[in-house]
Amino acid sequence: MCAFGVLIxxxxxxxxxxxxxxxxxxxxxxxxxxxxxxxxINLPFYALAWFRLGAGFTLKTFASVLLISxxxxxxxxxxxxxxxxxxxxxxxxxxxxxAGLLAIFRHRSSLGGVGIxxxxxxxxxxxxxxxxQLGFDLVLFAVALLVLPANxxxxxxLGAAVLNAIIGxxxxxxxxxxx
Length: 179
Prior knowledge:
Membrane topology: Multi-pass membrane protein
Organism: Roseinatronobacter bogoriensis subsp. barguzinensis
Order of helices and strands: HHHHHHHH
InterPro entries: UPF0750_membrane, YitT
Main location: membrane
Strand content: under 5%
Number of domains: 1
Protein name: YitT family protein
Structural class: mainly alpha
């Protein structure tokens, strides 16, 4: 779901937040594929995950990042997405990727990077992961204004808001069975 969401997002020339957004911006600027850039950007965050959240979380996060990176490398050859409107693309991205990320979080995993930090802060301090991620996203969108037209950045912000609202409203530790 998350890789499909990124396909919709990049098909409209939009960006998202967190490490995925950084990977999208780098891929736009360099021509490197999102999947490769996303995988490499996440490498430094595994040490934090290992020490703060444990081996199980880290290994599941590594697998999640590896899967989205791999699927992102091939999904464009399997599915063609031509968004007619950036607002629609932004909302669809937010809904699809938000639901995918929510499922990943509910299985005590993340898509790396800021997701690891947000998950850790939710577990330790009770801060909602979606709202933490939205704060990080605002910084990335400020940088995106240097690379993309302002209207695309604004539509991108809508997509990130939808994604993070889904996580912020639905990802609550009291809803899960402790393992």
